[in-house]
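step=encode ok
step=design start
structure_in=
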């Protein structure tokens, strides 16, 4: 099984930026970022499908982060980043990296059911 390790979380003031990183033990077809607050479901916020033939559609974002967050990956597809700008208090959550098998975005591409492995998470606090 692929192993995922997140890093880069921390505390930041509203309007600030943070970059999260995720290291995977091997490459996978798709990766994503999720966040979760206590008592709520884990929510997908960004996904990347690097093998998808339509380059413009390889990255997918939830409406809540579109335009503020950017998901990217290295060429080896074992390091995933989430650049988070203009952070808001409502972005406070535990952030998880995820890996999946889909070569192209499926229906409901940010559903947790589309990913089969999750990391342990890294906390982001915005005040």
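sequence_out=
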């Amino acid at each position: 099984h692929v192993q995922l390790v997140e890093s880069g979380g921390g505390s930041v003031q509203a309007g600030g930026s943070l970059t999260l990183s995720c290291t995977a033990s091997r490459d996978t077809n798709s990766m994503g970022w999720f966040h979760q607050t206590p008592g709520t479901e884990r929510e997908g916020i960004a996904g990347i499908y690097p093998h998808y033939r339509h380059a413009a559609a390889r990255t997918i974002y939830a409406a809540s982060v579109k335009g503020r967050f950017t998901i990217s990956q290295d060429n080896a597809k074992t390091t995933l980043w989430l650049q988070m700008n203009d952070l808001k208090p409502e972005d406070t959550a535990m952030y998880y990296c995820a890996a999946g098998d889909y070569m192209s975005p499926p229906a409901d591409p940010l559903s947790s059911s589309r990913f089969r492995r999750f990391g342990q998470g890294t906390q982001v606090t915005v005040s």
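step=design ok
step=annotate ok -> The first strand starts at residue 4 and ends at 7.
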